[in-house]
Amino acid sequence: MTPIRFERPQDGPQIEDLLDRAFGPERHARPSYRLREGVEPVRTLCFVAEAEGRIVGTIRHWPVRLGATGSALLLGPIAVDPVRERQGIGRRLMRAGLYQAAAVGHQVVVAVGTPSFLVGSPAFLCRFGFAGAEGFGITLPGLDDPRKLFARELVPGALDGAGGAIARFSPEPGESPP
Question: pLDDT tens-digit profile of 87-142?
Fold first, then answer.
């Protein structure tokens, strides 16, 4: 079984290489990447799978604003080395991320589905309790198809009345990132 561990700073180059192979270099033009610009991921929610000294899977979470006053986590990217797909690595990374996010008190996770990539596909996300964000009144400006946006409550009822646009996280005065 491929071990899962917390991401370390020195993992960055291998993770970027894996993400380029999984999504292509055009991934930076996607609306979800604009939410990450100038924002650090939540380090306690970033995991990798490692085999034979190489990163073969990754998952990260980023703080975002939800509507006028709320907050959420943006899942992703999540990727698995194409030669390691269908070995359960993506499922284990997703479980680790969601478990840890709930354990430290986060309430909502949002994700953008990527139909062309198995691990980020809508079917994969729905297996972990994600549902179409439209049903919660959540939008992502710049997203070409609102059906690609998903949300998951980590706390029952956390999305009741929480709709609105997802925006980049900017701390308010005196506020620290999650």
Answer: 899 999 999 999 999 999 999 999 988 655 444 577 889 899 999 999 999 999 98
Burial class (CB in 10 A: 0-12, 13-18, 19+), 160: exposed
State the pTM of this model: 0.89
In the block, tokens 């509507």 appear at 67
Looking at residue 76, its amino acid is G
Only one residue has tokens 């079984």, namely 1
Q: Give yes or no for a contact between 49 and 4, defined as CB atoms under 8 angstroms apart.
A: yes
